[in-house]
Amino acid sequence: MLTVTGLCKSFGGKPALHDVTFEVKRGEIHGLLGHNGAGKSTTLGIILGMVEPDRGEARIGGVSVQENHAEALRQVGAIFESPAFYDYLSGWENLRILAGYSGRFDEKAAVEVVERVGLTKRIRSKVGSYSHGMRQRLALAQALLPEPKVLLLDEPTDGLDPEGIKWFRDFVLDLRKDRGMTVLFNSHLLAEVEQMCDRVTILREGRLVHEGSLDELREEAPVYEVDLEPWGHAKTFLELNGVQILSPGRIALPSDADPAVVVAALVGCGIRVSAFAPVRRSLEDLYLEITMNRSGT
Ligand SMILES: Nc1ncnc2c1ncn2[C@@H]1O[C@H](COP(=O)(O)OP(=O)(O)OP(=O)(O)O)[C@@H](O)[C@H]1O
After folding, report:
1. Tell me, what DSSP letter sits at residue 44?
2. Can you say whether the dihedral through the CA atoms of 141, 146, 148, 153 is positive or negative?
3. Burial 119-131, CB ≥16 within 10 A → b, else e
4. ipTM
5. How far is CA 43 from the centre of its chain?
6. Which atom of ligand 1 lies at the shortest distance from residue 42's CA?
7. Best mutation site among 32, 33, 40, 47 for ligand 1, i.e. most ligand atoms within 8 A of its Cβ?
8. Which of 35, 196, 265, 268 has the most CB atoms around it within 10 Å of its CB?
């Protein structure tokens, strides 16, 4: 549904993106992750046609954003950076005016969307009186009005309280269930991303370091908690055999290693193996391992 291929972008000679390629499949909820300055907003800006890449392109539904901007973006609803509204007008007037810029304002559709985002009671109030969470809901209503196939969301839960974050999560999951919506969003809230996303793309200093599901990520270097005696002897043996020592008692096996074979080899070397158990890592664990250890491809 959405592909970016070979994206390169520099600002004033300083690279922000280097050869970034990934895809978001139809009906997928996809997280775009990375530290501050990793290139997430630049990537979203290029997909939205607001930032011109030095090289590469973004395609939405097969249509190139760089070659056929209007047609590609017809399929997209977005919240990018802080949504700008007229504070002295009501939510409804804002929707009417902002929808008018890009096409026709369909009142019936707007009533439904406003209901869907839970703003019906306050839609006639001035936006200046809205809380941050209500502004986000209004931005979502605006993004959904043209009935897009893809939603692009830049830090959508930024500044929301826990209740607002939960509402947002349920809302996006329902959108996918009811309408098969494809969603790409960037976030620093890894627990949220873990609960919502089918797959993630992780950027580090403008380079792609991972694209795939969390399970694929876990399988790339499965981690085990071990109790081995004597540890110094075991550590040397493991390192010589390509096993990564994450901390005393925590190791990452190469993806093709059979743990039973490793245990047998340790025992064969006279090492006492009291524990050798797989660890289920959170997205936060995986993210930190990747962004600290792995250089981009
Ligand atoms: N308009 C611009 N002019 C100059 N440099 C820019 C511009 N936009 C982005 N950059 C630089 O490009 C790099 C990537 O920035 P980007 O905003 O894409 O990162 P990000 O991953 O979205 O970060 P954050 O999580 O802090 O929003 C950073 O070094 C940033 O300073």
Report:
1. H
2. negative
3. beebbeebbeebe
4. 0.96
5. 12
6. 18
7. 40
8. 196
Amino acid residing at 28: E
Global confidence as pTM = 0.84
DSSP state of 206: T
Closest-lying ligand 1 atom to the alpha carbon of residue 34: 21
d(CA 141, CA 262): 55
- pLDDT, position 297: 45
Residue with tokens 């081995």: 228
Tell the residue number behind the tokens 């009417």, with chain if given.
96
Ligand 1 — pocket residues by CB below 6 A? 11, 16, 34, 36-42
Q: Which residues pair with 104 in a beta bridge?
A: none
**Residue given tokens 């950076």 in the structure block:** 81
Q: What is the pLDDT of residues 203-254, one digit of tens each?
A: 999 999 989 988 887 777 788 999 999 999 999 999 998 898 988 888 988 8
| Weakest mean pLDDT among 57-61, 125-129, 188-192, 195-199 | 188-192
Which residue type does 5 have? T
Cβ atoms 60, 76 nearer than 8 A: yes
Contact criterion met (CB below 8 Å) for 281 and 215: no
